[in-house]
Specification:
- This protein has 188 residues and is mostly helical.
- It has nine helices and two strands.
- It has one domain.
- A hairpin with a 2-residue loop joins strand 1 and strand 2.
- Helix 1 crosses helix 3 and helix 3 runs parallel beside helix 6.
- The longest helix is centred in the last third of the chain and has 29 residues.
- It is globular.
- 27% of the residues are buried.
């Protein structure tokens, strides 16, 4: 099942993914289903993928009562969101899963639910932050950025440097994303 989901996400076959999710929800639990989806979506996530990932989450789980009503099913998706600092996906998650879930609660219960998410996000952020390391020019980043000889309005960069820059950009976006998610949860 995991390989099938990975392939479907790789192909971006949202209709087939939705059918697979519906089948999973009949054959397993909402918790297992969301864990498999988070495992398939998470490693593919890049900041430029945010809109697509938000759309996929919406298509897969909007009005999905078995997931909405199971707070344990929220956790794998939430963890995937925090790991990636995926603010857009978090906003969709909050809209289609969290808000419908807390709508049946009184204000204190809803506050407790969001506070538990906040604590989980803070704990994960602390762990993830401790794993970051510096990237230094000359050690991890080889060369200078140069002008493209045929068009000085463009720059060229070594492939190895580009890969290092991609990692830095994604790490930076994840840090800022987690900060924004924590701020939102704190406001609830």
């Amino acid at each position: 099942m995991k390989q099938e989901l990975n392939l479907l996400f790789e192909l971006d076959s949202i209709g087939d993914i939705r059918d697979t999710v519906q089948r999973l929800l009949k054959e397993t639990t909402p918790e297992i289903t969301t864990k498999l989806i988070a495992d398939a979506m998470g490693p593919r996530y890049k900041s430029y993928y945010a809109d697509q990932a938000s759309y996929q989450l919406k298509i897969l789980f909007e009005d999905c009562q078995s997931v909405i009503e199971s707070p344990e099913a929220h956790i794998p998706l939430f963890e995937m969101i925090i790991i990636n600092g995926a603010v857009e996906v978090y906003n969709t998650f909050n809209k289609i899963i969290c808000k419908p879930y807390v709508s049946k609660m009184d204000e204190d219960q809803a506050g407790d639910y969001y506070f538990d998410l906040y604590l989980k996000a803070q704990e994960m952020s602390d762990i993830l932050f401790s794993r970051y390391h510096s990237i230094k020019k000359g050690t991890h980043f080889i060369g200078e950025v140069a002008e493209l000889p045929s068009d000085p309005s463009y720059s060229i960069i070594a492939k190895e440097d580009y890969d290092a820059m991609e990692l830095v950009i994604e790490a930076y976006n994840a840090i800022i994303g987690r900060k924004e998610i924590l701020e939102d949860l704190e406001s609830k």
